[in-house]
Amino acid sequence: MSLTNKHKIINDPVYGFIYLSSELIFDLIEHPWYQRLRRISQLGLTYLVYPGAYHTRFHHALGAMHLMGQAISVLRTKGHEVTEEEAEAAAIAILLHDIGHGPFSHALEHSIAASLSHEYLSLKLMQQLNIQFDGKLDLAIKIFTNTYEKRFLHQLISSQLDVDRLDYLRRDSFYTGVTEGAVNSERLITMLNVHDDNLVVDAKGIYSVEKFIIARRLMYWQVYLHKTVLAAEFMLENVLRRAKELQQSGVSLFATPALSMFLEHDFTKADFDRRPELLETFTQLDDYDIWSAIKVWQTHEDVVLSYLSKSLNNRKLMRIELYDKTPPKETHVQDIKARVKSFFNVNDHDLEYLVITDHITNNAYNPKMHSINLLYKDGTVVDVAKAADQLNISALAHPVTKYFICYPKSVTKVM
After folding, report:
1. Taking 80 as the threshold, does the pLDDT of residue 316 lie above it?
2. Long-range contacts of 258-263 (CB under 8 A, 24+ apart)
3. What's the rounded mean pLDDT across residues 111-134?
4. What are the φ and ψ backbone dihedral angles of 60, each rounded to 5 degrees?
5. CA end-to-end distance (rounded Å), the chain
6. Which is nearest to 289 in space by CA: 251, 262, 250, 307?
7. From the candidate CATH numbers 1.10.3210.10, 1.10.357.10, 1.10.10.10, 1.10.540.10, the one assigned to the domain spanning 9-226+377-386
8. Against a cut of 0.90, is the pTM above it?
9. Per-residue exposure over 201-216, b if at least 16 CB sit within 10 Å of its own CB, e if not
10. Mean pLDDT computed over 117-141
């Protein structure tokens, strides 16, 4: 019989003490697959803009689990039954919701494993953990996949006002120092309720919801879609895409065994379903694999790979120009491409790695998805965008799209 004390207390800089409520949760946190999240940056390369943003998926998942416990406690006080088994399962589901993230959180699924979303990989890992833990994650998986009878438990994990968003907004605001993104998670959680098995917010919490949606919009513009962050993220994706192209064409590249495996192959969901060992290989990947490779690739003979690697390693990021409403003029794009092509002496195919044109969309609140509904004392339920007495929410319900072009700053010297 183990004498290990598994009811630990974790000191979190955002919430203070976080209590681990069960031995099963302790054992899951101790598992190597969860410990790997310590080596996965929560905000990718955002720390190149906000130096404090070095927190990880490990921090975030623990924080979200803490908020889940608070939310369930509130719902219980309002007369909604949540058993101890359901509470533990919901805590496990949110604890593991990001376990399938690859290096730098999103870079992998946008480059060398484009057909594999982190949601899919999280579920695969949860299913394997369930085997290792003798079926103790059955209920957590049902809640995670929204196949459990109490739908509001899934909505606490994934909706437009879930504990995932409540944690990452507050945590990312804390570590970046962008105070506009700070949300009052305690107030919002206190206002949570359930109506017809759906998560709602007590009507008196309307202003807290408005603040939450506005904070989300501001965090996207100031942090997640900050133009310098965008330049760094696209450069990272392109260096990985270039490495994959070279590796598959027979060019030898330095890489850890796990990274090399993903560079050499275009794995699909069918491959993961058929070959369980691929999941274990995936769990060997983290930010360190990418940075160690990039440091070596700086001196590679391939012009594109070496330029992107050296630029990222030394934070010599590309120039990025943002455009409201309409893309940059084609004459401007072609002029930049001509200058980059001449400067680097590359062909049209390689040029695509060095001149990036795309768009970004900021959609703080999408009522077409699971809407945030307010519950009034008479039992009436109203979408927050319709109930707000200001134009803020209805305006924020409309997505804003911006276009950009990204290219090496060095070409501006050749006019």
Report:
1. yes
2. 258/282, 258/284, 258/285, 258/289, 259/285, 259/289, 259/290, 259/293, 262/108, 262/112, 262/113, 263/112
3. 92
4. -60, -45
5. 75
6. 262
7. 1.10.3210.10
8. yes
9. bbbebbebbbbbbbbb
10. 96
DSSP output for 34-67: HHGGGGSBTTTTGGGTSTT---BHHHHHHHHHHH
Q: How confident is the model at residue 196 (pLDDT cuts 50, 70, 90)?
A: very high
- 17 DSSP assignment: E
pLDDT tier, 158 (very low <50, low <70, confident <90, very high otherwise): very high
- Examine the pLDDT at 399 and tell me if it is beyond 90: no
CA distance 415 to 412: 6
Answer whether residue 351 shows pLDDT above 90.
yes
Quick one: tokens of 134? 């003798």
Structure tokens at 92: 């496990």
Name the CATH code of domain 318-363+399-415 (choices 1.10.10.10, 3.30.70.660, 1.20.1250.30, 2.60.120.380): 1.20.1250.30
